[in-house]
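Listing S7. Sequence submitted for prediction.
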Amino acid sequence: VASENQTDTLNVSVLNDADFQVDIDRENSTTGEVVEGDTVDVVADIENVGDVSGEQVINLQINGTFSQDGPNVELNASESQKVEFSYETEQADIGELNFTVASRDDADTLNVSVLRDAEFDVAVDRSNSTTGEVVEGDGIEI
């Protein structure tokens, strides 16, 4: 501001909006391979690297498709919080699954391989098998 006889200056700082960064905690999350039917746990650290407080819903996506809303996270500037998701795999999940934890500002992805549960068939050839009663200690042929 200036006039004929006076000048005044005011410095203004512009604050950055809340910015929620996502980092999956691979030490506390399920990694590598699981068998169908197993539960995959995904733990993520959410940090507000902005200059002001903010609030966002953190969600989980599997192979790019929305899976579940997580908590509504409210963080002050420079504050962080852990969020956890659990997903029970099923036969349709066999193969590679990409678990993405996302805020409005950022996302991080964890890859997990889902293996088919072991199955085998047993057939007994009765023509070569021991039949009748067996005495304790005797062998049985199947």
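Caption to Listing S7: primary sequence and predicted structure tokens for the chain studied. The two ends are 101 Å apart (CA to CA). The mean pLDDT is 91.
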